[in-house]
Specification:
By secondary structure, this protein is of the alpha/beta class. The chain has 4 helices and 12 strands; from the N terminus they run E-E-H-E-E-E-E-H-E-E-H-E-H-E-E-E.
């Protein structure tokens, strides 16, 4: 079974406050032009996307420079639904292993499209972030727009340790009772700090 964890890209989709709106235009139409074509203008952080280290660090390393193996790996779900802060728990020491792609289910994705989604989302505690770094995970996935708020200390700690962040995951609740799954989260091969991505979970 394959679970799609990606929001559809469409015109006027929700974007982080201050970011440019997404424009998706049907520029050529079959009845008029003999073929169909679409033109997309999108911020790299709209919808389901992957933040690369260049996003908040003074680097010249594009997301396309990261090893492709970074974006594929064994997934592990942490169900923390309903919390305002994702805290460190001793039990995570055994659950999270090196090379995991850790998906944090907060349940806050149900507010995607609402104004509160970009202002009231739960954040990760510093102790939890340090656990992820110590465990040498491949990547972190969230059903929220960010792991933190200004000045984005968690972003920077993760990026400094080469851990990209998948933000705005969809349908994460479908993984709650899944015992084993692989994550494939491929960014575009693009010379940019971050990228929209198609993210799927393959249930084993």
């Amino acid at each position: 079974m394959i679970i799609d964890l990606t929001y559809a890209i469409m015109a006027e989709m929700p974007v982080y406050p201050g970011d440019e709106e997404t424009s998706l235009t049907h520029t050529q139409q079959f009845g008029r032009d003999g073929y169909n074509n679409h033109q997309l203008s999108i911020n790299m952080h709209a919808g389901t996307h992957i933040d690369g280290p260049m996003h908040l660090l003074d680097l010249n390393e594009y997301i396309s420079d990261l090893p492709i193996a970074t974006f594929v790996g064994e997934g592990i779900l942490l169900d923390v639904s309903g919390v305002d802060h994702v805290e460190y728990k001793t039990e995570y020491e055994a659950i999270i292993q090196e090379g995991h792609i850790v998906v944090v289910y907060t349940g806050f994705g149900k507010h995607y499209g609402e104004e509160a989604y970009f202002t009231d989302y739960p954040v990760l505690s510093p102790a939890f972030v340090e656990l992820l770094i110590r465990k040498k995970i491949k990547m972190l996935g969230l059903d929220t727009p960010s792991p933190d708020k200004f000045p984005y200390a968690s972003h920077k700690r993760l990026f400094s340790n080469q851990i990209p962040i998948i933000e705005n995951l969809a349908h994460v609740d479908h993984l709650v009772d899944v015992k084993a799954f692989e994550i494939i989260a491929l960014p575009l091969r693009i010379q940019a700090d971050s990228s929209p991505a198609r993210v799927i979970a393959i249930v084993r």
